[in-house]
Design brief:
The protein is mostly helical. Helices cover 61% and strands 12% of the residues. The protein has a three-stranded antiparallel beta sheet with strand order 1-3-2. α1 (2-26) packs across α5, α2 (30-40) crosses α5 (94-116) and α3 (49-56) packs across α4. It is globular.
């Protein structure tokens, strides 16, 4: 139970701190940032909205509300599938890429402060390896506290 409690506390602290900085400096919530990050890692920087909802663990209406805000901000746009009108995509815009690049620098700085100043590079790699062995974590790439190369 100690490990679980510490994981919960660490997660909560990291997410609160990161969101505080992302909102203050870029007007992005953690969910906004994660959405832009997922889109940036996809071919053509687009995803079917239903797949994005699944990736974010949101309901269809939840991802619609999230994407409506990002669309209003000009960071994401909606695209349709020429072969199937029922399918729609979320597409990262040039403005979204620029905001993501700036927010990623903030993310890296905050993660270095919260993790890198307390754990050595070897300890961080070991922690990543251990957490990666958990069934719900191993397939995740590009998490909130990860640079493009997976470094905190």
């Amino acid at each position: 139970m100690t490990v679980f409690a510490r994981l919960l506390r660490a997660h909560g602290t990291l997410m609160r701190e990161l969101e505080t900085w992302l909102v203050a400096e870029h007007g992005l919530t953690i969910s906004d940032f994660e959405t832009l990050l997922h889109l940036s890692h996809e071919a053509e920087q687009r995803m079917r909205r239903v797949d994005l909802a699944d990736r974010l663990a949101l309901s269809p209406s939840g991802v619609t509300r999230l994407l409506d805000g990002l669309t209003a901000a000009g960071l994401v746009e909606k695209a349709t599938c020429p072969g199937d009108a029922r399918v729609s995509y979320a597409v990262l815009t040039a403005a979204g890429r620029a905001v993501l690049a700036a927010a990623s620098r903030t993310n890296e700085r905050v993660c270095r402060e919260l993790l890198g100043e307390h754990l050595s590079r070897d300890e961080l790699e070991e922690l990543a390896s251990l957490l990666g062995r958990l069934p719900t974590v191993g397939a995740v790439d590009g998490s909130a506290c990860s640079g493009g190369d997976g470094a905190p």
